[in-house]
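FW: tagging you since you asked about this chain on Friday. Here's the raw sequence from the shared folder, copied in full. Didn't touch anything.
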Amino acid sequence: MGKVVPATEENIKLGAKLLAEGRLVAFPTETVYGLGAVFCLEQAVARIFEVKRRPFFDPLIVHVASKEEVFLLWREVPREVEVLLSRFWPGPLTLVLPRKETVPDIVTAGLDTVAVRIPAHPVALKLIQYCGFPIAAPSANLFGHVSPTQAKDVEEDLGDEVDLILDGGVTSVGVESTILLFREGDFYLLRPGGVAVELIEELLGRKVILRRGFSGPTLAPGMLKTHYAPRVPLYIFEGAVEELGRVNLENIVVLSPFPPSFSGDMVFVLSEKGDLKEVAFRLFAALRELERKRVKKALAIPVPEVGLGRAIMDRLKKASRGVARLVDGELVFVESKACG
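HL: got it, structure written out here
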């Protein structure tokens, strides 16, 4: 049988069987596709790093199917954390808390904490349930590349290295989960994602501490400065969008979150209504489409960094090589690590 199969009941059970045997299975979640292994099978987890070419210092998220399963992984669930779980699980929210000794070091990159979430996707939930164990799963793509939002993205990146790819269609959120670290009574934002920080703060009745300036080891996925990057040179445009209509955009695609005042074959509109949910949903697919069309260079129009816009800009900054500005009517591209 082929590596990519429809996510039928029979094939989900086959995937669970392969996982129990120490094999790797790619599966859909509501955020992106994940590359899974049973969390306590260390050789299988090690193969995730090998297949993705992922550095071993970058910890993994462990996926569970019920809140009861977190007690296999976390030492305790503080009341403040329980409030968030009751509201946002299942869903695109990951919590990082002190781990039990049953969690192998390879999953946590040797840290004393482990990242956990319940995915809001029927295929993912059934796979975990049939398997009978939590599943460690980063995104199912080559490390640093654009995250996969459909089965063919997984196949393009990882090919025969994956034992089975369950095709559950296009993912509904399109960006990864929000990751929070709970430490000494405070919540720290390690990665913005599918749950807006503002919603979390509203529920908690207090501020989440942003990770800017947060020092120490890599505590969660997606914290590196360069990530989610397409093979097309991508730059974030700094300036008034309407000014782009007056410059030469030959061989340059403009990736816009809304219809700009100018049009053309090289304008890729992510949302006709400027809806940030739709922008997030289409972002990674658009970046991969640029690769397939062999675009030479791309400009991304930024969005305000509020709500889901924070996650969108996090992905664009990490995916970009720098910024583009208009100087005397000409586009100037500036390579900049500060953008990552």
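FW: The chain has a mean pLDDT of 93.
HL: agreed, and The CA atoms of residues 27 and 166 lie 5 Å apart.
FW: great, closing this out.
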